[in-house]
Amino acid sequence: MGPIGVFDSGYGGLTVFKEIVRKLPQYEYIYFGDNARAPYGSRSFETIYKYTLECVEHLFRMDCRLVILACNTASAKALRSIQQQNLSAWSPEHRVLGVIRPTAEVAGALTRTGHLGIFATEGTVKSQSYILEIDKLFPEIQVWQQACPMWVPLIENNELDNAGAAYFVEQSVGRLLAQQPQIDAILLGCTHYPLLYPLIRRHVPGHIQLIAQGELVANSLADYLHRHPDKAALCRKSPVRTFYTTETPEVFDEKAALFYGEPVQSRHFEHD
Ligand code: DGL
Question: What is the pTM of this model?
């Protein structure tokens, strides 16, 4: 048995991790933030795949059999390749799950007009993963995407409350709604974006639902473990939560608390 691993390029995955821990407090977890190499959002497919695979393998070596990519960019760009090309090098017990599929699964319940908006990183948008996944499940829904390349840097640098952040949020909201005014629900398709929620809410008209994915992913994981008792049996039950960052722990801890909602004490991890 081992802990459940939760990976993100940086801090964003903590918004998902918080919900997972709330929903499934009985398990032991390791959170791994590759902050030293974040943001991933505008990097190439090859780089995101290489970085994500390295981090997943670090988590496997730390005894995690189940790893959640709590990052849309990594889920969009690396999950399938890892599942198809790399998992076979590990035991059949090793599993990696992403955040796009569980989010796509609830899309049908989110929109009435059939027009769903998504804010995401450039990488996620270009991958078309949301469009493809949602189309498989709900072909009647049209997905409208808007890449927001400035949002993660603003969040990572704690620049949430200034005129610059407001400008870029207003710009992206305007661009998304200009594509399709009938959008009635917008998904925050990047795990960092919940930190900008109040600002985004201010710029999105009140009749449009704004959805963060943390709880959706937590519910889906609970369902997965329920449906796969053999996998659940490999996840150790314990109140221990360990945080690793490729950044300096003091820097990580200060910002991480904002995302996680409580104090965090991390350890440094150095890539080879
Ligand atoms: N949090 C990641 C996501 O959900 C992206 C952040 C980044 O660009 O590194 O897409």
Answer: 0.95
Q: Backbone dihedral region of 191: left (phi > 0), alpha (psi from -120 to 50 degrees) or beta?
A: alpha
User: Does 55 qualify as catalytic in the annotation?
Assistant: no
Choose one of 196, 212, 228: the last residue of a domain: 212
Structural domain range at position 148 = 101-212
41 CA distance to ligand 1 centroid (A)?
A: 5
d(CA 235, CA 17): 16
Separation of 13 CA from ligand 1 center, angstroms? 8
Nearest one of 67, 103, 66 to 215, comparing CA atoms:
103
Give the pLDDT band (50/70/90) at residue 1: very high
Task: For 83, list phi and psi in degrees, rounded to 5.
Answer: -60, -40
- 184 with 197, same domain: the answer is yes
Which atom of ligand 1 is nearest the CA belonging to 121? 10
C-beta of residue 36 within 8 angstroms of C-beta of residue 246: yes
- Residue 71 among the catalytic residues: yes
Question: CA neighbours within 13 Å on the CB side: how many for 177?
Answer: 15
Asked whether residue 114 falls in the same domain as residue 94, the answer is no
150 CA → ligand 1 middle, Å: 11
Q: Which of 73, 75, 156, 247 should be mutated for ligand 1, with most atoms under 8 A from CB?
A: 73
- Domain total of the chain: 2
* Tens-digit pLDDT profile for residues 182-207: 999 999 999 999 999 999 999 999 99
Whether residue 56 sits in one domain with residue 123:
no
- Report the amino acid identity of residue 207: H
